[in-house]
Write a structure and sequence with these properties.
Layout (H helix, E strand, L loop, with lengths): L35 H35 L3 H15 L7 H8 L1 H9 L2 H5 L5 H9 L2 H21 L5 H6 L1 H28 L8 H27 L3 H15 L1 H15 L5 H29 L6 H8 L3 H30 L10 H4 L2 H13 L1 H24 L2 H25 L11 H22 L3 H30 L4 H5 L2 H9 L3 H10 L2 H4 L5
């Protein structure tokens, strides 16, 4: 079996998945064994994250118990209606303990940190809480089961990604894993039953949440069983990766609640649903990136494999390598099409106003704000177009040849586009009923593209092509994301979406949120990447 240096082999696609030959680089990747201070820093951050998830797990179990007591309970329904009316009138809700007794500890904390009007006023959490108390009791119990099992996954999943815990307590790790599997699958089954038995207009955040929860239920189920399959085949690295993706998807629940707290504390004059627009906009891709961070940090803390074992580890994944080459070649027309769309819609066109059926599908406030920012700050638009076109042109060359100069230009273009998106998002501002998520999605997307562009540039500088290839897929996904919005809009227009959901912005929100789901594809490439095979998973 011959050795191939991908970075210097002309006219060959970069592999996004598994190498078909042994590593051609030193096995001390950019994330080699960390210095002691960095290891302790990572442990400290991991501990804080674990504590945060443990607290949420307890809060979710409390919410499940509260919702169980409230199911079909007319007295609690009246209490929640009175709380809504008091919040709308700017009056006190009463003692925090009393509010928590019929709304849960976490929501009572939300009202204390932000304002009663933000948390429980109209267009806040009062409507779903009232519905939970008036829905059929069997449906309410199903929802409470979902809450409790979701809390259990947070309690038992928080320590599963700690390498020292896995090594020192393997039996506990397996026992926790079994509880986690049963709880995660049970929570998703309960969610599916709730969705089937509840009309869309009675679900919190209606169509957007309905579609998102179905997507998460399916995604969690698929990734969970892929993790089980990988473990059965003794593919430890892939098992860890699928579990990290699975846990990331389950983190949507706590991250959403913590996001509500953050926006409520920053802008208590908002209504909770407005803050939720911004949180939901970034929720799934953000949590997927948290899952990827868990997977990557685990690789950071793991030793390198001896060079002679890497080929043997990669051998079962030869078809992934062939698929990776075809994906790399197939992505070339996609990135070129994204470049053409960028020129048509953002360089020569009117931005969102030029999207398919924009006047019908995009709320007037969103269009007005987009035009205002574009005309008031044309340099931002110019910077974004320049960075995107540079990055996409370099991406095509990088995918075809894998040469370092093309990779450097890709990272540079991604960094410019990321800076422009962040600046653009800051100019778009806070969420509102008129502008929906405001600039939240741009700030998130820009930060992600900028981060992976810097990581890729650092890997190229340190001559670590395996990591550069892995991170390049995240950069490419970020560069394609914004142009892809103009491809998604025609598809959304074909959906039989009711007029009320189009008028309230759900059609546009689904299209806007969908553009950053490409990051999930980049994560899937990382599961079988060359950088993954180089680590001794345990």
């Amino acid at each position: 079996m011959r050795h191939t240096v991908v970075a210097h082999t002309p006219r060959r696609a970069v592999l996004p998945a598994v190498p078909s030959e042994p590593l051609s680089e030193p096995l001390s990747g950019p994330l080699s064994v960390a210095p002691e201070w960095r290891t302790w820093l990572l442990r400290g951050l991991a501990l804080l994250g674990a504590i945060g998830m443990l607290l949420y797990g307890l809060a979710a179990i409390d919410a499940g118990i509260v919702n169980y007591r409230a199911a079909g309970n007319e007295q609690i329904a009246q209490q929640r209606m009175q709380m809504r009316d008091a919040a709308d009138a700017g009056q006190s809700l009463g003692p925090t303990s009393e509010v928590a007794s019929h709304s849960s500890i976490m929501l009572a904390l939300l009202a204390a940190i932000s304002s009663p009007t933000y948390a429980f006023g109209s267009n806040g959490l009062s409507e779903p809480l009232i519905h939970y108390a008036t829905m059929p009791r069997s449906v309410g119990i199903t929802l409470s089961v979902h809450n409790v099992l979701g809390g259990v996954t947070m309690l038992f999943g928080a320590l599963q990604f700690w390498p020292a815990f896995r090594r020192r307590f393997p039996l506990w790790h397996r026992a926790f894993g079994l509880v986690y599997i049963l709880a995660a699958q049970g929570a998703m089954i309960a969610a599916m039953v709730f969705l089937v038995r509840t009309p869309v207009h009675l679900i919190y955040d209606q169509l957007t949440f309905y579609v998102g929860l179905w997507g998460l239920a399916i995604g969690v189920t698929v990734s969970l069983w892929m993790a089980i399959y990988a473990m059965a085949r003794k593919r430890i690295a892939q098992h860890q990766a699928w579990m990290a993706l699975n846990y990331g998807m389950l983190l949507t629940a706590p991250i959403q609640r913590y996001g509500w707290l953050a926006f409520g504390a920053a802008a208590p004059e908002l209504r909770q649903l407005e803050g939720n627009y911004a949180v939901t906009a970034v929720l799934v891709p953000l949590c997927v990136m948290i899952g990827y961070a868990l997977f990557t940090l685990n690789r950071l803390l793991q030793a390198e494999r001896p060079a002679h074992t890497v080929a043997r580890v990669a051998a079962p994944f030869q078809w992934h390598a062939r698929l990776g080459r075809w994906l790399a070649v197939g992505m070339i027309p996609v990135v070129l099409w994204a470049g053409v769309t960028t020129v048509q819609q953002l360089a020569l066109g009117d931005g969102l106003a030029g999207a398919h059926d924009a006047q019908r599908l995009i709320p007037a406030g969103v269009l007005a704000l987009d035009q205002q920012v574009m005309h008031a700050h044309p340099w931002t638009q110019g910077l974004f177009v320049t960075g995107t076109l540079l990055g996409l042109r370099a991406a095509a060359a990088w995918l075809w040849s894998g040469r370092r100069p093309a990779g450097g230009l890709l990272a540079t273009g991604g960094a410019l586009a990321g800076l422009a998106l962040v600046q653009w998002g800051l100019q778009l501002g806070m969420p509102s009923f008129a502008t929906l998520h405001g600039g939240a999605l741009h700030v998130f997307g820009g930060a992600i593209v900028l981060l992976f562009s810097l990581l890729m540039g650092g890997a190229l500088w340190r001559q670590r092509p395996a990591w550069a290839r892995e991170w390049s897929w995240f950069v490419i996904a970020g560069l394609v994301a914004t142009p892809s919005l103009f491809w998604i809009m025609p598809a959304i227009a074909l959906w039989p979406i009711e007029a009320q959901y189009i008028q309230t912005g759900h059609a546009f929100r689904l299209a806007a949120y969908g553009q950053w789901m490409l990051l999930i594809g980049a994560f899937l490439c990382a599961i079988h990447s060359q950088a993954t095979h180089a680590k001794l998973a345990r």
